[in-house]
Design a protein that fits this description.
4-stranded antiparallel β-sheet, single chain, 4 strands, flat, alpha+beta
Length: 80
């Protein structure tokens, strides 16, 4: 596991959303033997009930750009 975290629910959304956990891993056991990044998001305490995105390098880069853009919109340093 590269990173994981529990994301709190912002005030005012408690009735709509549950806290979530996320994890990022590298997976290489596909039939084509190409490694991919697996991004798991699931409710806290709901192990095995989440969704996993299996991302190739191009999609990981697109996600990285989207997150950097979102940070910029918040007025935050997008980092490296």
């Amino acid at each position: 596991m590269i990173d994981d975290d529990q994301v709190p629910v912002p005030p005012g959304l408690e009735h709509d959303d549950a806290p979530v956990s996320w994890a990022v891993t590298i997976v290489d056991d596909y039939d084509d033997a190409e490694p991919r990044v697996a991004l798991l998001v699931e409710p806290v305490g709901g192990a095995g009930t989440g969704m996993v995105a299996h991302l190739d390098a191009d999609r990981v880069r697109r996600l990285r750009v989207a997150l950097a853009n979102a940070l910029g919109e918040l007025g935050e340093d997008p980092g490296r």
